Structures are given as C-alpha cells and as structure tokens.
Amino acid sequence: MTERAEIAKARRIVVKAGSSSLTTPQGTIDAARIDALVDVLAARRDAGAEIVFVSSGAIAAGLGPLGLTRRPSDLATQQAAASVGQGALFARYTSSFARYGVTVGQVLLTADDMMRRSHHRNAQRTLAQLLALGVLPIVNENDTVATDEIRFGDNDRLAALVAHLTRADALVLLSDVDALYTGDPRQPGARRITDVRSPADLDGVELGGSGRVGTGGMVTKVEAARIAGIPVVLTNAASAARAVAGDRVGTLFHPVDDRRRATRHLWLAHATTGQGRIVLDPGAVDAVVRRGKSLLPAGVTGVEGDFAAGDPVDLCGADGRVVARGLANYDASEIPELMGRSTRWLARELGAEYEREIIHRDHLVVLTDR
C-alpha cells in the first residue's frame, strides 16, 4: 500500500491549519474559510476517521479586535492578543462544527506541558479520552501564558508531537502554499516537489521564513515531517479535502524509518530542553551512542547547570557536542561525588541506593548519528 493510500485509509488523522489559512489580511477571523475547513474535517470524520485538529490563529484573531494591524513583537502584547483571540476562535469552531452535530473540545498546551513527563502523560490521556467520547479535539499552543523560554514557536512542531501523543496514522499540514518548492514559488524557476523520501530529496532546496501572521515557515514544516515519522502531506487549505482523501496533492513526506519510535523517546528528543549538561569520557560516549548502554557514574567527567532528579539533561562529549538526552537519576549537586566511580564502589561506600545509573538507557535518546 502506498503512503497516499494509507492516508485515505487512516483511522486517525491530525490536521494542522496555519494562521494564514484562517484569517483575513486584516487579521480577523475569516468565517468562510473556517466553515470551508470544518466542512472537510466533518466529512472525513463522517467517513470513519478520527480527527484531531491543531489550529493556529489565536494571536492573529486578536489583532482586529485590539486594533492592531500586524502581529506584535513583544511578548506581553502577543499574550493579550491571544487572550482575546483564543475565545473568539474557539467559539467560531464550536458554532461551525455544531452544524454537523460534532462536539469539540479545546486543548491548550505549552512546551512545558511536553517537557514535564507527568504533564505529557496527562495530555495524552485527555486527548485519548476526548476521542473515546466522540469529541473532536482542537489543540493550540497556550499563547496567553507561554514565554519565550517555554514555547513551541510554531504549531507545525506541536502538530507532529500531537500526532505521536494520539498515535495518529497521518498528518496533514495546511499552509499558505500548495506544496514544498525548491525556492520561493513566486519566483521563476522554482520547482514543485511532490515527494520527499529521504533527506537527499531536500538537497538544494531553499527553505523560506515565516509568513504574514504566522511564526512558522518551510523549515518548521520539514522539521515537523521528520519528527512525525508517519506519512505527512503539506499543502494549502484549498486542497484540504483532497489531501485527507489521499489524492496526489501537495508534497508527501514519506516516513524514513518504518519503525515508529517510542513516544517517550520522541518526547525526550523533540519536546524537552536539557536543564543542564553531563560531560562524558570517550568510552561513555561510545557506550551510550553506539552500544545503547546506560550512562554509569564511571564515564562522567563533569556536570553543568542546576537540575533535579527526573529532569531532562543533555549528554555531551569533551568537545561540548551534545550526543544524547536523558532523564537524570540524580540531582546535579550529587553527581560530582559520583564521577569516575563504579556503581559497586558507590553502593559499598555510600549505600545501596547509589547502586544505579546516572541515566538508564530506557530513559535516554541518542541525538547524533551513530
């Protein structure tokens, strides 16, 4: 079965729409565009698929009511715009989906919700229960409280992570362009790319920046496709119906690896930020990166930052290059006393509770090529 056919038969689909697909040039909600997109999602749902909708547009929807002509650059005004726009945006979705008797549920997430394992699991359970109850979840970043330090930065990455949270079969990214091009599609010579099967297919592709009211660009969409690990279609809102039907529209990103990585590992790799660093000797780098081993105290030569047991931390070699990330079993303040020691020595000298890894391999993900 081809990936296009898999999209047509997908049991669960995540669909993401960018701000430019939902608002007018003045930054207000475009009711006609929203209704047209809801028509597509409701029809696919009636055909038997479960839909999770990731919607941008809260900040953009707040621009008009606040009398702003462009997306604000300062965080406080962005948060204010999101506060005004999010309610209006969700109310519009509620009304539009009600035409089909579909109940929608709002799920607002921050990157911090993905970084903290307990929050991550709660989000996973909430989405699963909404789907089990026949509710169509509408997910957005919680821009009213997100800060520069804890935000996704774009909803493409969020959509890819939600696809993993929900174990989706396909992801559709709706943008203001109909496909990925080798360059700016407004310029002569730009060639449309219909399929991306490997990183080599992106050689020579110039990935543009963000648009008028959104924060993402082609860079974030390509990254989202890499994170997702499932068939991903990139196209515009006008082609949404054909995209979810598995027609040959837009650009299809084929999964590079047929083995779907564990949600825990994807969470560690793409939804967390290292709260500190642990420096490894060459033997430990080899053990962690190439042999899939746990990180033992004997291989640690240094520690940086202030983190607590259970926090995600980056593992790096002597040259400072990050090679892996994992959940620490110790506070940063405890590690200097353990460095270079065997777990047997630690258990004998400090007590049996110290006979454990710095990071267990089940809670560790490699971030570099082996």
Automatic annotation (TrEMBL):
Pfam family for this entry, one: PUA
GO MF entries: glutamate 5-kinase activity
SUPFAM superfamilies named among the record's database cross-references: Carbamate kinase-like, PUA domain-like
Predominant subcellular localization, coarse grouping: cytoplasm
Claim: Nucleotide-binding is one of the keywords in the record: yes
Catalysed reaction, written as an equation: L-glutamate + ATP = L-glutamyl 5-phosphate + ADP
The EC number(s) this enzyme carries: 2.7.2.11
Domain of life, per lineage: Bacteria
Cell membrane keyword on record: no
InterPro entries: AceGlu_kinase-like_sf, Asp/Glu/Uridylate_kinase, G5K_ProB, Glu/AcGlu_kinase, Glu_5kinase, Glu_5kinase/COase_Synthase, Glutamate_5-kinase_CS, PUA
Annotated ATP binding sites: 16, 175-176, 215-221
Span of domain PUA: 276-359
Pathway assigned to this chain's UniProt record: Amino-acid biosynthesis; L-proline biosynthesis; L-glutamate 5-semialdehyde from L-glutamate: step 1/2
Compartment(s) of residence: Cytoplasm
Classification via PROSITE patterns: GLUTAMATE_5_KINASE, PUA
Keywords: Amino-acid biosynthesis, ATP-binding, Cytoplasm, Kinase, Nucleotide-binding, Proline biosynthesis, Transferase
Amino-acid positions noted as binding substrate in the UniProt annotation, renumbered to this chain: 56, 143, 155
Family: Belongs to the glutamate 5-kinase family.
Function: Catalyzes the transfer of a phosphate group to glutamate to form L-glutamate 5-phosphate.
Protein name, per record: Glutamate 5-kinase
Organism this protein belongs to: Actinomadura sediminis
